[in-house]
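[recover] target loaded
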């Protein structure tokens, strides 16, 4: 959404585009917040943001693969984390 808005797409149009591709919205609840916080030490040397850690924590909780174009994520050595680079 942010990228679309920064590229000049109006909010209504950006929302319509996002709604077409987003299959589910997952609340950032206390459990995810705690798991994201626990990743801080492991990920800080790679410059990962809270948003990055939230994505990683979600993937880990759901036993899913985190998909990214950020090559730093592939360098993470976290046994319960699966990462797939898209470029």
């Amino acid at each position: 959404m942010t990228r679309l808005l920064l590229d000049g797409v109006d909010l209504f149009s950006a929302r319509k585009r996002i709604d077409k591709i987003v299959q589910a919205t997952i609340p950032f609840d206390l459990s995810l917040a705690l798991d994201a916080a626990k990743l801080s030490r492991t990920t800080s040397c790679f410059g990962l943001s809270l948003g990055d850690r939230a994505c990683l924590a979600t993937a880990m909780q759901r036993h899913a693969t985190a998909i990214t174009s950020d090559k730093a994520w592939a360098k993470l050595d976290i046994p319960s984390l699966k990462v797939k680079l898209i470029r």
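[recover] notes: The beta strands are 65-68, 82-85.
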